[in-house]
Amino acid sequence: MLSCPHIRWTRSPSGLTSPRQPKRLCLLALWAAICPLSESFSHAASADHSSRQPNVVVILTDDQGWGDLSATGNTNLATPNVDSLARNGATFDHFYVCQVCAPTRAEFLTGRYYPRTGVSGVSRGQGRMNFDETTIADLFQASGYATGAFGKWHNGTQPPYHPNQRGFEEFYGFTSGHWGHYFSPPLDHNGRRVRGQGFIVDDVTDHALAFIKANQTQPFFCYVPYNTPHSPMMVPDRFYDKFDGLQPSLRHRDPAREDLMMTRAALAMCENIDWNVGRILQQLDELQLRDNTIVVYFSDNGPNSFRWNGGMKGRKGSLDEGGLRSPLFIRWPAKIRAGLTLPQIAGAIDLLPTLTELASVKANVSKPLDGRSLSPLLLESSTAWPARSLLAIKGSQVSVRTQRFRLAADGQLFEIAVDPGQRSDVAAHHPKLAAQLRRQAEQHGREMLAHFTANADRPFTVGYGVSTTLTARDGVPHGTIQRSSKAPNNSFFQHWTATDDFITWDIDVGQSGQYEAVVHYTCADGDQGATVRLTIAGGDSTQAPVVKVFDPPLYDKAKERVADSHYFVKDFHPLSLGILQLEKGRGTLKLDAVEMPGKQVIDVHSVDLIRR
Question: What stretch of H or E contains 111?
Fold first, then answer.
């Protein structure tokens, strides 16, 4: 599920140089490629970095609950490196994100409630941020920072939604919401299809480390959005062996709802995350960047299964405390006091204004922010902190969090400070407050619904870059064609058993011209000979026969630690269908078969449209 940006990227041998980076970085990138990542690099080791703007490293985990760290009291696992961020920096005791992945990412990147940004969900284009939004990477890049993102993006695939066009000079990872395999999977490097090397979290960390090393002499903004412990629950043996067969001492508040196989895998994945966080912190130490680097650590929603989470109600997908509360640790040894604990409520919307203010980066945004800077709290420069409410929305449901209370989506009121499990409705004891918060929820719901409605009908962009990938996730199957997975985010089309079957994509062509159409397919022996055609409604078409048999096995899932899996991944082969003339504007793209001599046509992963 890849795309190519609208520019051609020039590359050093390590692939770190883009047209936006200074030429001197080519030598640094080459050195990073030659030297082992674990080797200490002493270039400018004695240099004083305190006079320049701070570096920023943001680590965002995927489906890791507040309770999935030893720092928050979970004795089922050990996360010493993440815990060190709390010990040596600031901890926000009550930090809130969204109930699922893409919305939280959008709020972090923009400082705005996610419905305002065009995001409405996690699949079939719902994760796209409108391209008129200003991202935190745009701001840091405009201030002269080198910018890189390594891991799961989930805020748009096709240009101009691709991370390379949202302020990140360097991107390595994947743009989808789910990824179906975690060992050497297909990935995206600055819009080019590549194959990963080893376990995905280790791999993206390798690229983040290379980026940090290559940019050590200038300020950098390094975003590391890990994709675990999100399913599939794949993790190397060296991390899983400790938990294989474990009977955890801390359990979910309702143990009968807990899937222990899922818990064991999640704990192992969290320890792998911690190991990789340790590698990043060690790199900063070795390059003597520790004191002047802001390191931020948080998660994107509550835990993805029922497991220990401090007794809170709710998990991923819920607007209750357990579905929205995330750890937040911010370390900056030069400025933030070690061991600082902050009780004030805060949210993902606060991180853009906070980090730009801390780094003296101008927040030149054209749209109003919903977040506020936490800098006065972190630097202990002011004791004044106005009361506020944080709002969370899921469809028509709204939850409101104040410093003391949470109004649940069903209208019940809970005093979270003494009742984090939301067991006692106190609305009758605080009728005025309950009514006030219900009005806030209703107003927020109406306002956000307008944004949901305005962004509901968005075609997929084509021609806003040199190359565009239209994935199976974004297409619509017709006839007998089925998805390989119940999650469109990670699927291909299969069971194409009749010439009446077809696939469509709703597209918006940004630039008229000729486009080479390439379909990525598999074909079993005996099914070769089908002729596949791509047509733009009311316009041109192009077609080609499927000559080559390409029928690879599914990727091995031996390292997946749960009993049932709906993730299926395999390799695909490109077939050029020829040149298609596309006119600017909206239209329907249709992939069908002119003839089918075998039992079925092909399985389809995606279609590339490359402007000629």
Answer: none
Supply the angle between the helices 25-34 and 200-214 in degrees, to the nearest 10: 140
Amino acid identity of residue 454, one-letter, is: A
Under DSSP, the state recorded for 199 is B
Q: For residue 91, list its beta bridge partners.
A: 329, 341
With 0-12 CB in 10 A as exposed, 13-18 as middle and 19+ as buried, what is 364?
exposed
The residue length of the chain stands at 612
The predicted-structure confidence for 480-509, as pLDDT tens digits, reads as follows 999 999 888 889 999 999 999 999 999 999
Tokens, residue 212: 């940090």
Q: CA-CA distance, 188 to 165, in Å (whole number)?
A: 14
**Tokens standing for residue 328:** 């937040």
The DSSP secondary-structure symbol of 104 reads: H
Closest CA to 223 of 117, 325, 297, 305: 297
Secondary structure class of 201 (helix, strand, coil): helix
The answer to whether residues 516 and 612 touch, using CB atoms and an 8 Å cutoff, is yes
Which structure tokens are listed for 274? 């911690």
| 258, 286 Cβ separation under 8 angstroms | no
Q: Tell me how far apart the alpha carbons of residues 176 and 605 are, in angstroms, rounded to a whole number.
A: 13
What is the spatial distance between Cα 175 and Cα 223, in angstroms, rounded to a whole number?
14
Cα gap 482→491, rounded to integer Å:
10
pTM metric for this prediction: 0.91
Based on C-alpha coordinates, what's the Rg of the chain? 24
Question: In the chain, helix, strand, coil percent, each to 5?
Answer: 25, 25, 50
The structure tokens listed for 394 are 């899921």
**What structural domains and CATH numbers belong to the chain?**
53-378 (3.40.720.10), 390-454 (3.30.1120), 460-611 (2.60.120.260)
Q: Is the pLDDT of residue 16 over 60?
A: no
DSSP β-bridge partners for residue 571:
none
**Three-state DSSP string of 396-412:** CEEEEECCCEEECCCCC
Residue 191 has pLDDT above 70, yes or no: yes
Question: In the numeric block, which tokens belong to residue 58?
Answer: 């943001």
